[in-house]
Amino acid sequence: PPPPRLSPLPAPISVRYAVLEDKYVGRHVLDGSVVRLSEKGAEIRSAAPVPLLGNLKIWMPEIEAGAGAGELYAKVVEASPTSGAGVIVRFTAMAPKMAQYVRDQLA
């Protein structure tokens, strides 16, 4: 399927993420920022390289108040066309509160 259609955000959203190794969260948690977003995916900028087709667990500290509320899972579908230091991800799973947060950012 084609990558998600992404809308630029007025201000980047800070995130932390880890690359999943098999079904386990990798040891290295990295910082990044979401600069474009849709209900189905995002563009994440980060200084650290992320493998194409890698699976990520992403945390959004901004809404991390509830246990697990700020988590989502995504697959890297392509390198960022707008930045050498970023990737386009397609969301694969997220909590309902997270889905609502994404919709609110796009409103």
Explain this structure to me?
The chain has one helix at 96-106; strands spanning 7-21, 24-25, 30-37, 41-45, 55-59, 71-79, 86-94. The mean pLDDT is 85. Helix content is 10%, strand content 50%. It is built from one helix and seven strands, in the order E-E-E-E-E-E-E-H. It is globular, with a radius of gyration of 13 Å. It has a six-stranded antiparallel β-barrel. The two termini are 25 Å apart.
* Coarse morphology: globular
The main pleated sheet reads as: 6 strands, antiparallel, barrel
Which structural class should the secondary elements be placed in?
mainly beta
Q: Would you tell me the overall average pLDDT?
A: 85
Radius of gyration: 13 Å
Q: What is the helix content?
A: 10-25%
Q: What fraction of the residues are assigned to beta strands by DSSP?
A: over 45%
Low-confidence stretches: none
Alpha plus pi helix count: 1
Order of helices and strands: EEEEEEEH
Distance between the termini: 25 Å
Lateral strand order in the biggest sheet: 1-3-4-7-6-5
**Number of strand elements:** 7
